[in-house]
Amino acid sequence: MDIINHPITPEKGKAWHFKSHQYFTKQAHNVVNEYIRNFSNEGDVILDPFCGTGVTAIEALSLKRKAIMMDINPLATFITYWTCRKINTDKIQNVFGFLKFKVEKIIKEYYELDFNEAQKIKPSYWYPSKIKLPQNSDFKYVEDLYTSRQLASYSLLFHEINNIEEEEEREFMKYVFSATMFKVNLTYWTNANRGEEGGGSSIFGAYRYHKPIKINELDVWKNFYNRFKYVIRGKKIWNDLTHDIDVNNNLTVITGSVLDLEKYIPQNSIDYIYTDPPYGGNIAYLDLSIMWNAWLGFDVSQESR
C-alpha cells in the first residue's frame, strides 16, 4: 500500500450525519474515508478506541469493513451506536406520531403561559435530581440548566419515551431526545447572524457550563420535532447508502478504556486503527457530558474521570 501523499480538503459539514448529534470534536468524514480506503481492504476489521460520534465506524461500514468502536464515555458509545445503526424509518415515524399525540399539546400549553406563570410549573415525572455539575460551572445541579417549563417538558417527554414498548424504538427516541438537549438549555448562546434558533451551547463554545448574561428559553418540543425530522432524513440516506451491507452485524461498540483493550479484543484481530485521541486537558469530555449521562442513566465512575 502506498502512503497518501496528496492533501485532503476536509468536508466536515457535508456528511448526512454531521448534525445528527452534537459532540465536542468530530472528524471530517472524507478524510477518514480516504485513510480507511487506502490502508485497508474490504472485510478488514477497523478499530477506533476513541470513537466519539462514530465517524470512523460510518466510513468503515460504508466501505464494507467491520467496525469495532470503543470509548470510555458512555455518551460517545451511545451516539456512535444509534448514529450507525440501521432502523425501519416507517416504523419509527409511526412511533413519533404516537409520541406527538401524547406530549405536544401539553408542552405547547406550557409555552403559552407568560414567563412568571411558567416558573410555577413543576415536573410531573422523573428527572435527574441533585446531580452535581463540574466545579467551574455557573450552575450547581443538572436540573438548574433549565427553566421550569423546560424541565417539565423534558420530564414529560422522557417519561413517554420510556413508555415505548419496543426497545429499539425506545432507545432511538432517547437518541433524538439527547440530541435535542445540546441546545435547549440555559447555556444557549444566540447567534445574531443566524436568528433566534441558530445559536449553540456554551458547553461546546466555552467548554464549560457557562450561563450567558441574556437567557434565551428555547422550546423543547419544537426542537425535538425538528431534530427528529433531521435525524430521520439522515437515516434514510444511510439506509440507501448501505442497502447491500449488513451494518448491524458488522458493528461492535464497547464502553471501556483503551488501557483495557485486551479485555475486549483478542490479539492480532485488528487490521487497521484509525483514531483521533482526546485533546489532553483542553476538553474535559466526561465532565462536560454529565447532563446527558444523567438523563440517560449512564454511570460514570470517578476513576473514569
Question: Can I get a quick summary?
Answer:
The chain is of the alpha/beta class. It is built from 12 helices and 6 strands.
Description:
With 305 residues, the chain is α/β, with parallel strands linked by helices. It has two domains: 12-86 and 245-283, Vaccinia Virus protein VP39 (Rossmann fold), CATH 3.40.50.150; 89-235, no CATH class. It is 42% helix and 9% strand. The chain is built from twelve helices and six strands. The strands form two sheets. Strands 5-2-1-6 form a four-stranded parallel sheet, covered by helices on one side. A two-stranded antiparallel sheet has the order 3-4. The model has no long low-confidence stretch (mean pLDDT 92).
Structural class designation: alpha/beta
Report low-confidence residues grouped into runs of 5 or more: none
Radius of gyration: 20 Å
Q: Describe the oligomeric state of these chains in a short phrase.
A: single chain
Instruction: Please state how the strands of the largest beta sheet are arranged side by side.
Output: 5-2-1-6
Tally of distinct domains = 2
Helix fraction bin: 40-55%
Number of helical runs? 12
How far is the first residue's CA from the last residue's CA? Answer: 39 Å
> How many individual β-strands?
6
Average pLDDT reading: 92
What percent of residues are in strands? 5-15%
The geometry reads as globular
